Structures are given as C-alpha cells and as structure tokens.
Amino acid sequence: MRKTTILIAGPTASGKSAAALMLAAKIGGEIVNADALQVYKDLNILSARPAATGEAQAAHHLYGHVDGAVRYSAGEWSRAAALAVADIHRRGKAAILTGGTGLYFRAIETGLSEAPPIPDDVRAAAAARFEAIGADAFRKEVLSFDPAMARLAPADRQRHIRAWEVFKACGAPLSELQQRPGAPIIENPDARVVIEPPRTALYAAIDARFDRMIAEGALAEAQRLFDRRLSPDLPVMKAVGAAELMANLRGAFSLEEAIDLARQNSRRFAKRQLTWFRNQARLWPRAGSAAQAADALFVASGALQR
RNA sequence: GGAGGGGUGGGAGAGUGGCUAAUUCCAGCAGACUGUAAAUCUGCCCGCUUCGGCGUACGGUGGUUCGAAUCCACCCCCCUCCA
C-alpha cells in the first residue's frame, strides 16, 4: 500500500483549507493541521479553522486539540504530526498536511535538533532574570556560556531567553545542540506546494475574511478567551485578531480600532509568511490559487489512492 | 468685502534661521528565522548611486541673510468666523 503524504503551505487566507479539502475528496485523504494557532481549542473562528462542513467531508487531525492554557511547541507538534500521519497511512489513506507555519514544515521536513523540554520553573527563572538585570546584561550572560549566540540581534529578547533556558536546563549551549541536526519526520513527500496568491488579492481576502469572522461570532469567542484570564504571554493570547479584540474588551481601544488593527496585523503576518516561503521553501512548486494547487497536487501525487 | 487660521515627503503630523532630506506614527517594500513561530527581530522607504555620496526638495515667485521649511513682500489655493 502506498503511503502518500502531501504538504500544502501558504499565507493566511490563501485558500489552503479549501485546497486540502478538494484534494482529500479526490484522492481519499485525511487532513493534518500544520498551523501553530489552529491547534488551540479556544480559537475556532479566530484562527480560521475549517468549518464543520469541511470536517464532515474529510477527517481532520490536530485541530483544536490543545487547551489555550498550554504552551504548545514546534517539537510537540511535530511528534504529534508524525503519529497522525502514521495513523492515516495505516488506514490506507493519504495524509495531507496543511498550514501556514513555516517552522512546522521545516520541523517535519528536516527535523528539529534534539533538545530537552524546558521545565516551567526554568522558563520562569529566565524571564525573571531578564527583567532583573536588563537586556544588555542578559545578553552578556548568554554569550558567556554560548558565544555563538552573538549572531542574535541584541534586541531579540525571545531568542536570548531561549538560549539561556536551554543552557540552564541541560548544561549545553543551544548553538551546540543546533549543530546536531534532528531526523526528518516526513522523508519524501509525494507532492508539496506553496499557495501564493497575488498580493493585492491576498490582502483583500484577509480583509473580507475578518468581516466574516466577526459575523460568525468572533467577538463572543474573544470574550470567552478573555474571561479565562490566562497569562498574556501564552501563544493563544497573541493570536492575530484575538489579541486585538481582547484589547478592545480591556478598553484599550474601540471596536472599530480593534478591527482595523486586526486586519493590519493579519496583512503583516501574511507578508512575513510570504517571506518565509519565498526564501525558506525555495524548491517548493507554487500555485496561484487553491484550485490550481489542488489540481497540481492531484497530478503530482499520481492519484493512486481511493 | 472684512477678521483670523492654514498650505511640509503616499497619508497623518512635528519642526519656527544653521545640528534637517527634514522627529514621529501609519501605509508600503525587503530580509532573518532550529521547540512562544499568528512569535521574535533587522533593514529600506524623494530621485540617482560603485552605498561613500551626488541632485532636487517643505504651495508659487521674488527678497533679507554668510546661511531659510523656518523672516519679509506679492500671488495662488484651503478652512473658520463676520458681512
């Protein structure tokens, strides 16, 4: 039995989900989420998760399976994805991974370096240390045990903290761990594609989609998440759209301002995604639309399933 | 017709004699990216550029000054109020 695996990447609102559904219908596939925020159960509308109708047409995996209070990671996702794909193959179906998180695709295609999980107390210590001594001193401290981290931009708080945490948690410099590449999770995908709509069309789609989200109850969803009073530095709390609407609930600005900001941040986010795929996924074939992507993938995958 | 306010780079909006091609914000563009990645960070953004510079610029035209977006005169346009 063939173990078909297909990857669909692209910026937000480019039609990835639609392409995945079309393809799944044609070749008898199941869909696996490769998007960092669609994993959270608190974000349904706001992360543009496939609608129930879509989920009825084909099995979906790794959507909304994580509680918002959890700090998920690329590593956890890639392990879960490996299991999901193996499962689908066991059932004789094609696995279609789709999402907009470039790092996640890298994690399965080339693998992440082996790194131990960081205990919560070390995480907290890192953040506390950073606040206590300031960015400059913190950077010096990191460089003292991992000089290679000099390549980090001085203002890059997040990566400095990561380097600090890893060293404290396992005693080895992060740069050293990174030199030992991990193993790919998906060896040779049968087909892959980046959906890259024209910029103006993509921006228009983003604006239109946000209106739809509001109409579908995005505000109530934001309210529910807001009411959980989770730590603001959790990934769910930073979701584009959710963050702005919650800022409105907090009284930081009006609903109109929140909506404008959400749209703006979505556009910026899409631009960053395009930059990633353009430069980090150079060898992937391109498609200008969901339909085009589905067709190309159908041909490329050999259409042996069913 | 009279009184006042104002015209600054794609937009908003600082600047009131040199430190200013002109703070800042927005919009836009380009880039980095190994476990928070919808995150985090960097650069460009008047034209040309071998990236050191060069050339034009703050409604228009003249003028004052060693030097003007900044001061003066006239002209054009916009807004508010009084007729």
How are helices and strands ordered from N to C?
EHEHEHEHHHHEHHHHEH
What's the helical proportion of residues? 40-55%
Termini gap: 11 Å
Total helices: the number is 12
Strand content: 5-15%
The total of beta strands comes to 6
Question: Which class do the helix and strand fractions yield?
Answer: alpha/beta
Mean pLDDT: 93
Largest sheet: 6 strands, parallel
Spatial order of the strands forming the largest sheet: 3-2-4-1-5-6
User: What's the Cα radius of gyration?
Assistant: 20 Å
Structural overview:
With 306 residues, this protein is an alpha/beta fold. It has 12 helices and 6 strands. The chain has helices at residues 16-27, 52-57, 74-90, 102-109, 120-145, 157-170, 174-179, 199-215, 218-227, 242-249, 255-280, 290-300; strands at 5-9, 29-33, 60-61, 94-99, 191-195, 286-287. A 6-stranded parallel beta sheet has the order 3-2-4-1-5-6, sandwiched between helices. Strand 2 (29-33), helix 2 and strand 3 form a beta-alpha-beta unit. Helix 10 runs antiparallel to helix 11 (255-280). It is globular. 39% of the residues are buried. It binds one RNA strand of 83 nucleotides through helix 3, helix 4, helix 6, helix 7 and helix 11.
Give a nutshell description of this structure.
Helix content is 53%, strand content 8%. The chain has 306 residues and is of the alpha/beta class. The mean pLDDT is 93.
Write the layout of secondary structure elements.
Layout: E1 5-9, H1 16-27, E2 29-33, H2 52-57, E3 60-61, H3 74-90, E4 94-99, H4 102-109, H5 120-145, H6 157-170, H7 174-179, E5 191-195, H8 199-215, H9 218-227, H10 242-249, H11 255-280, E6 286-287, H12 290-300
Parallel strand pairs: 1-4, 1-5, 2-3, 2-4, 5-6
Helix pairs in contact: 1-12, 3-4, 5-6, 8-11, 9-10, 10-11
The chain binds one RNA strand of 83 nucleotides through helix 3, helix 4, helix 6, helix 7 and helix 11.
